[in-house]
Amino acid sequence: MDFWLGGTFESGGIVWAAKNHVIAVAALLAVLVFLGHVLSRVRYKEKQKHQFWEWFFLFLSCALMVFIAADPRWISESGVKTQGKYVVLVDSSSSMKLVAQGRSRSEEALKVVERLKRTFAEQGGEVDLYSFDGALSEGAPEDFSATETDFGVALHGISDRYLGQSLRGIALVSDGIDRGTLKSLYEKGEMGTVLPKLPGPLTIYPVGDPKAGFDESVVSVATGGFAYQRMKTSLTAKIQGVPNGKVKVGLYQGDQLVRTPLEGVKLPVPQEEVVLLDETGRGEVTFFLRPLEVGRFSWEVRIAVAPTDVAPSNNTYPVVLKVLRDKIRVLQVSGSPSYDQKFLRLFLKQDPSVELISFFILRTREDFQAGWEDDELSLIAFPYDRLFTTDLESFDLVIFQNFNYKPYFNWDASTLLQNIADYVEDGHGFVMMGGNLSFDMGEYANTPIEPILPVKLGVESELTSEDKFLPSLTKIGAAHPITQLSISPEETRRVWERLPMMDGYNKNMGLASGAAALLVHPTAQINRRKVPILAVRKFGLGRVMSLGVDASWRWSFSEALEGEGNQAYLRFWKNALRWLVADPEDRSVVVTPSKENALIGEELNISVLARDAGYQPVAGADIRVELIPPQGERLTFSEQTDASGHFAIPYTPKHYGTHTIRANYGEEYITTIFAATSRDPELIEIMPNMFFLEQLAEFYEGKIAKMNEDPLLDKDASRQVKIRNENRIGRTPAVLMLLLLTLSLSWFFRRRGGAR
């Protein structure tokens, strides 16, 4: 009977498997066949015998054909008891890729998995394989690159998926490094409070040999985010390595070990320490910096890579600090007291952003040679040798105001003046102001100072002029930030025209190469060009200004008499200070990353601001920005500023290390930096945690197994497997025979009725 019906029919239901349009087409064809047969019977009107039975069996045949085309199936389910599954959990974290003694932990893990699969396949058992990080996924790990290993998530996931079932066993393959909540609870002895009940015995296969290698790493570096120029600041680095071991750690800038001048120590102190680690392998070290420049600078904490270090990539940690100027340190040296010296000194002392060191009414060399004792002289000694050697770098700006070096400097005058020239070239500011002891009157021609000045020396005849004159503002001066005394070049020019006349000036031989004249004599000329009175230039990385008069104080005094205050004088010197110290934030184009230290994959904004000579925003400025990552291709952006003189570039760093940003606006080129770090949590602590795995096995009454050991098994574990039975009714021999029978009977009665 089973043969004719296509099998047994248990409790279940019928399902029409054919698509609706197939059934519709079959029904239409059946109707057409039936109608065609009926119409063909018209020719045999006189032969109506057995016609009813003929049409009846034909109708049954057509209905059976539609039934067969609909592909009816009888679906029933039955349960079969079989042995329980075995579940294998594999840690997919990036720490599993670490190599020691020629093999990686992931290779060990996959060998365990293959052996378990092969063992249970031979026994006819079924294995479910999962990988886990911060989530549970089916199948083996693809590349062992996860960064959020969470044992709790994995164990809860297995408990939920196999709720109500019995498993033959569960194998956990891992190095024991957990980044989830279990780790902290394990350290407190409270791990058992959150662990789920597992549906089978647990066997743990640890991978990675704690004795096969070790790791020393810089875990993090803490900074305040910024530092002040010339002031001591600290960086604190957290170090990790072998418990109770020693690690040599250094602070570097580029390839050079940082050496920091500290109070009470004659020589700069190398920033390198041997850190003693505690019983957990952790330690801390603090380094000190005293940055001399303003801007953003990069440092790096480094640990030398040992041959047996299994993760050398975490031995360095870059950090960028924004160095701010707390105060502008100014050294003012004047050869004799005067109104000009007094007014400038008063302005500098009253400015809270300036720290002034001022020397005037100085002892000359003759005073020392006269035989007087120090307590018999009213003047203090002028420490020129220290000022222009060891202390020189501590100043942002040096002002020689009507100062002749010869009476004060001894045989090393050339060396001291060269120190000043080098100081300017290294990025500092210098001003020479006029008077009867300055420029050619001070015999600076053919000294190391002459090449840095904006004007040429070497006047051979009359060195000064005492004729009164009103300086003329040049075209460059009308737009330069130093002489920009009002909101527009036109108004600035009118302000200069209203200022009082000067009493005279120091003559010169014209502008030096690369210099610009901001104020000139209205009539006097040299080489067919008007004699520069106020001139500026950049020398190396520094900036220099020369003012060939000694009566700038009149710009303050005259306006005060007219009841307008001393704004011209104050604005002039404030502008001059800002320009001379070359503050990075005061340039015509300013580039600012939103963070000095970002994470890889974290978006930040690179803000770009364009300003004119008067520090006003420039709309529609074309600026080219080049972003240079530590590796990979450079990125170039060409943008226009908006109405506020600004635009921003979103950027997501992909590479570890210091990134450089270069911007070009007109003739101005500026550079700044930021650092991108990526501390993969899996590479902070990389030593296999056997203690954690042992505690886990103990809680579940499981075991720690070696690679070739068999796991714990629950031999009584079983599961009910549902078997789906499907009988295609339309294809059974009984239905096909019924179709053949109805067609035959229809044909039989047609022939018996006399039709063909």
Question: Would you give an account of this structure?
Answer:
The protein is 24% helix and 31% strand. It is elongated, with a radius of gyration of 46 Å. By secondary structure, the chain is an alpha/beta fold. An eight-stranded mixed β-sheet has the order 22-21-23-24-30-29-28-26, sandwiched between helices. The protein has a six-stranded mixed β-sheet with strand order 7-6-3-8-9-39, with helices on both faces. Strands 11, 13, 14, 17, 19 and 20 form a six-stranded mixed β-sheet that branches. Helix 2 (20-40) packs antiparallel against helix 3 (51-69) and helix 13 packs antiparallel against helix 14 (567-581).
> CATH superfamily membership of the largest domain, which one?
Class I glutamine amidotransferase (GATase) domain
Shape: elongated
**Tally the helices: what do you get?**
16
CATH architecture of the largest domain: 3-Layer(aba) Sandwich
| Classification by helices and strands | alpha/beta
The strand order across the widest sheet is: 22-21-23-24-30-29-28-26
Share of helical residues: 10-25%
Largest beta-sheet characterization: 8 strands, mixed
Beta-strand percentage?
25-35%
Low-confidence parts: 367-379, 559-565
- Which fold does the CATH topology of the largest domain refer to? Rossmann fold
CATH class of the largest domain: Alpha Beta
Indicate how many domains the architecture comprises. Answer: 5
Question: What is the CA-CA span between the terminal residues?
Answer: 37 Å
